[in-house]
Amino acid sequence: MKNFSKIIKAVAGMFVSVAFLFMTACSNSNAAPRLSPEQEMVRLTSELRDYATERTPSFQFVGNGAAGLLEVTRHEPEESVQELVRSLDGFLTESFFYTNEDDAVELQDPEMLEYLEAMMERPQTAGKAIWTLDYIEDDEQASIDKAMGRAKGYVSSTATTTALTDIPDERVQDENADDVMTVRDARNFLILLNPEAFASREAYLARLAATPYDALVIDLYYGDDPLTADEVARLQEKPQGGRRLVLSYMSIGEAADYRPYWQDAWNDSDSRPKWIAKANPDWPGSYRVRYWTDEWKHILFGSENSYLDLIMAAGFDGAFLDVMDAWQMFQ
After folding, report:
1. What is the mean pLDDT of residues 298-303?
2. Picking from 140-144, 287-291, 299-303, which range would have the lowest pLDDT averaged per residue?
3. Count of CB atoms within 10 A of residue 83's CB?
């Protein structure tokens, strides 16, 4: 009887242990899965793409800083990379061939350059445009930069400052009078995001309209007012003849305190919503955001006054999605 009693107790103990393990497994299975910052950035890009093209099938997207999202990893599976390539018409990478360290312009580290080129192979093979933008003041270095891009089948451009406030004086590479209806067809591009150097709205628009570029990337706003459909249509005509693309800047990884959606209460750090994360020390007034939240997505698209909807209402051909590398902060 004592031995039998021991057996009963042992079996009972086994059932308790199994029950505990079962309940623990159930509890874990019901817990929220680990958020993948990489996949959430791809998901947001895909949602923007589907929302826009459902309303305007020809609307296009160029993503900036998405190179790391093209690498298949434990947290960025093959299906997510495929979705990213589907969702973007073009991929832009800054500091591709040249980097800026301690105010000195240097050739990109060979290993990093090899990595970046490897990442671009996939979208390039899929027929997507590959753009590079390096910050160079020296004309000879700028020429070398563009030649390296051309050799790879990229469209490469340079700017003298990261502020992107001016229009270069040099002759535009591959200037042409052809109609440019897709990002892939553009042989050159200009990114000008800060128009404060221009004396007036008209001076700004006239100077842009006079440039021969195939694609312009500009801000939706001049001052506090968005560009109108008539103003965008004016910019869509190249002075030498032919139609060009006009894309609007749109940050999807950061919020800025100078944007119309910013509320005065958010200037107090204690009153900011939880989806606003840390300030970007390199860009005063800019804050990384938890871009997977419904609150941020509502600011970006889905209503008459959301950012993407305003861009589309103004007649832009597409959007330039910036700060796509924000996922790195949330790893």
Report:
1. 98
2. 140-144
3. 18
Claim to verify: residue 276 and residue 226 sit in the same structural domain: yes
Give the Å distances, CA to CA, from 277 to 208, 229, 245, 251: 35, 34, 33, 15
| Cα(320)–Cα(322) distance, integer angstroms | 6
* Cα(207)–Cα(203) distance, integer angstroms: 6
Per the structure, the count of domains in the chain is 2
Structure tokens at 219: 């801000």
**Pair (50, 155) in one structural domain:** yes
pTM of the entire structure? Answer: 0.89
Residues 21 and 165 reside in one and the same domain = no
Query: Binning pLDDT at 50, 70 and 90, where does residue 34 land?
Result: low
Residue 250 has phi, psi (to 5 degrees) of -155, 110
243 forms beta bridges with: 237
Q: What residues make up the domain containing 9? A: 1-31
Could you report how far apart the first and last alpha carbons of the chain are, in Å? 59
